[in-house]
Specification:
The chain is mostly helical. The chain has 18 helices and three strands. It has a domain of about 280 residues. A three-stranded antiparallel β-sheet has the order 1-2-3, covered by helices on one side. Helix 8 crosses helix 17 and helix 14 crosses helix 16. The two termini are about 20 Å apart.
Length: about 425
């Protein structure tokens, strides 16, 4: 590929510095969470921290490659990249390797590659390509369905591989759709669906129906200008009841036992003390240990490599999805706040840069990057702290794994490359 002459080093260095800070701090916590005894060899590839150091080294090679490619390449070949990503997800059903009950990896010697981590940036490119087309109008039902199909196809393939956590990430694109003209009605419906689902599980269909009825008919009788008939409000009320009942049926008969138990623990649905204790020793074990590790860190933490619960391996696989518990124990409230601020700063910076783009493709892609990072960051930290149900989802640039690190790096640095080219888009 040909390098661009104008502004080829005009990269946003603040974004790059935030990226480097997250990767560096992430490695330190992976080292803490995965080392056994005294660390004498940081390049010990038999240990996760040694392997991750190699992943980081290869990441910089990847960055140079991404920034060396002409920015227009990512727009021109977005559809092909998306197609390759879809084929890689389909191939898992034939050649995939089962790990912890999920068929989400290709085995390459002693290493594994997870295509779903790369499908995120491919989908972001495809969405940006579609929405930047002059013929696309997100206010029409036809184009809305096309946009939803773009994100539902990889999401469905990932869900069929028994990887519900990665599937949830694709909801991030609805933030992008909303920014680009999707009606507020959809946002209201999405929020209502979540509220109804939680209320239905927590309080039952009858109480949920009473609450929904009070709100719906309260709106009807208090509005001076009644744009909708009473029949329409009654229909909405009946739909709410039907949906609430459907969620309860799906929870009881559609979900697996461990998924039911995770939701039950989150909403505190289980009242039987014997069963509750059994659930805490199974589905809730990681969460309980994680919460205890975080709370034991106090205000300033126990110090680097000094976390007793971390070094004692109380939290299983702590260097992956539960890496934030290491931050909480060894770096305390101060360190945890610092990590949160780094992520918030990165997301805000990407959003700021997105709004300054001259190209619609670059803006949509930038919003996709910020939304994906936001969903990953929010769900992972919320999960580790017990604020949301446990799902398998990594913390960007922090959790151990080459596929995750490279996938997020590609996602971010394609945008950095697109942003550096905006000087040529006048």
């Amino acid at each position: 590929m040909i390098r661009e002459n104008k502004g080829k080093f005009n990269f946003d260095w603040l974004t790059i510095i935030l990226f480097l800070a997250l990767v560096t701090f992430g490695y330190l916590n992976i080292l803490s969470a995965s080392h056994i005894g005294e660390v004498t060899d940081y390049f010990d590839t038999s240990q996760p921290y040694g392997k991750h150091l190699i992943f980081i080294g290869l990441t910089f090679v990847l960055i140079v490659l991404i920034l060396s490619i002409e920015a227009k390449f990512y727009e021109n070949f977005a559809s092909i990249i998306y197609g390759v990503a879809i084929l890689s997800l389909i191939g898992l059903f034939i050649f995939g390797k089962d790990v912890n009950g999920a068929r989400s990896w290709y085995g390459i010697g002693s290493m594994t590659i997870q295509p779903s981590e790369f499908a995120k940036f491919a989908t972001a490119l495809a969405v940006a390509k579609f929405m930047s087309d002059l013929q696309t109008n997100m206010k029409t039902i036809q184009d809305q369905l096309k946009a939803v199909t773009l994100i539902m196809l990889p999401a469905l393939l990932i869900l069929l591989q028994n990887d519900a956590g990665s599937t949830i990430v694709y909801t991030a694109f609805f933030f992008v759709f909303y920014r680009e003209g999707l009606q507020k009605t959809y946002l209201a419906v999405a929020i209502s669906v979540i509220v109804l689902a939680v209320l239905g599980l927590k309080f039952g269909v009858v109480i949920t129906a009473l609450i929904a009825g009070a709100i719906i008919f309260g709106l009807y009788f208090t509005r001076k200008k009644k744009k909708n008939s009473l029949f329409q409000y009654v229909l909405i009320f009946l739909i709410c009841i039907g949906f609430s009942y459907g969620v309860k049926m799906f929870y009881e008969h559609g979900l697996k036992v461990h998924q039911q138990n995770r939701i039950s623990l989150w909403l505190r649905l289980e009242k039987d003390p014997v069963k509750l204790e059994r659930m805490k020793k199974a589905e809730a074990y990681n969460l309980i240990q994680s919460e205890q590790a975080i709370s034991s860190g106090g205000f300033s933490g126990k110090g680097f490599l000094q976390g007793t619960r971390t070094t004692g391996k109380f939290v299983p696989e702590q260097h992956t999805d539960y890496i934030f518990s290491t931050v909480g124990e060894e770096w305390g409230f101060l360190g945890s706040s610092f990590v949160v601020l780094l992520f918030v700063a990165l997301i805000i910076r990407v959003l700021y840069l997105s709004e300054s783009q001259k190209s619609l493709f670059s803006r949509v892609y930038g919003y996709s990057v910020a939304s994906i990072l936001f969903v990953h960051f929010t769900i992972n930290i919320g999960m580790v702290m017990g604020l949301i149900p446990t799902v398998g989802i990594p913390l960007p640039f922090f959790s151990y794994g080459g596929s995750g690190l490279w996938g997020f790096t590609i996602l971010l640095f394609i945008f950095i490359k697109l942003d550096s080219n905006k000087i040529n888009e006048w």
